[in-house]
Amino acid sequence: MASWASLVHSSHRKGIHLNDRHHHEHGHDHGAHHHHSPSGTRHRLTHLLTPHSHETADKLDSALESSARGMRALWISLAVLGATALAQAFVVAVSGSVALLGDTVHNTADALTAVPLGIAFVLGRRAATRRFTYGYGRAEDLAGIVIVLTIAASAAFAGWAAMDRLLDPRPVHHVPAVAVAALVGFAGNEWVARYRIRVGRDIGSAALVADGLHARTDGFTSLAVLLGAGGSALGWQPADPIVGLAITVAITLVLRDAAREVFRRVMDAVDPALVDRAEQALREVEGVREVGELRLRWIGHRLRAEVAVVVDGEATVRQAHGIAVDAEHALLHAVPRLTAALVHADPAPVPGEADPHHALAHHTVA
Q1: 16-30: string of b/e by CB count within 10 Å (b at 16+)?
Q2: What pTM was estimated for this model as a whole?
């Protein structure tokens, strides 16, 4: 008769989660207010008094709500930046300010970055298929790459415009109107930046955070227009291009931060603190002797986990199943935005006994 360990391993290899029982008993939002330990008194009281479930439908509802918040942030941002760009375009038409024209182009480009993000959020709502078995959440990472490239193009354009103005100085007309338009551009971009970054961090979207940083770079560009116009009003024409070059450096620094964030997400990087939190939660589960290999990865703005835990080698299949369920439950409580966890139970090693994974050794990549 096969051992319980081999049976448990086989069920996982076939894609069966050891969580059927709790999937029909528990479920909740995995936000900041669920960072407590499952062994605490508050946790037990909450479970007694509050009906909830971890069913796939509930997880999908939470994921859709995150995408809906992201879409709402994009539409609001698009409206604010669109209005800002229109106001600036009017001033450009009456003043002939090349610097303000560049700022208007930046704001328009920033508004248009909502397009790839919107497509990513829409794709993220689609159910997984037999080809895309993890769903379409990684479309957000592709959108993040597009946004980083857009920031890079903005930096290049700002630098080129500043150098052109430095080599070919031109006076700025209607300075008061240009100054007001610059302030409007800064206010609009800064508001959008704060809003996008806040929502992006709340739902775990690196692409939306990067888009917020992009809006902030355009706000800096607006300030450059304001300072350059002030210098021109005082009769110092090189002020505008010099400030423009300084802002180009600032945009490059923001580009570095955004690129690093998106690169980490594309490479499946996670905050090490999340790994520590997950390991701590697993060690507190009754029946778990050790925590083996633990992996976390982002799929869009949602997390998935895979982990091996060591349990008593004399446990029955049903007992090992219960421990695996409790381990997944603990992870869902401890790790924010975690929507699924695959738990594999290994028997505790016995001296003189062969490694139960010996048959897989030749598949291990050195």
Answers
A1: ebbbeebbeebbbeb
A2: 0.67
Per-residue confidence (pLDDT) for residue 228, from 0 to 100: 73
User: Is residue 189 pLDDT above 70, yes or no?
Assistant: yes
* Of 196 and 241, the one with more pLDDT: 196
Concatenated DSSP letters of 124-154: HTSPP-SSSTT-STTHHHHHHHHHHHHHHHH
**Dist CA 111 CA 74 (whole Å):** 9
Q: What's the CA gap between 291 and 2, in Å, rounded? A: 24
The Cα 208–Cα 216 span in angstroms is 13
Q: Where are the alpha helices (DSSP H) in the chain?
A: 4-13, 20-23, 41-49, 56-95, 98-112, 114-124, 139-167, 175-203, 206-233, 239-266, 272-283, 317-334
The DSSP call for residue 360 is G
CB 23 within 8 A of CB 55: yes
At 137-156, the pLDDT tens digits run 888 888 889 888 887 887 78
Mean of all residue pLDDT scores within the chain: 76
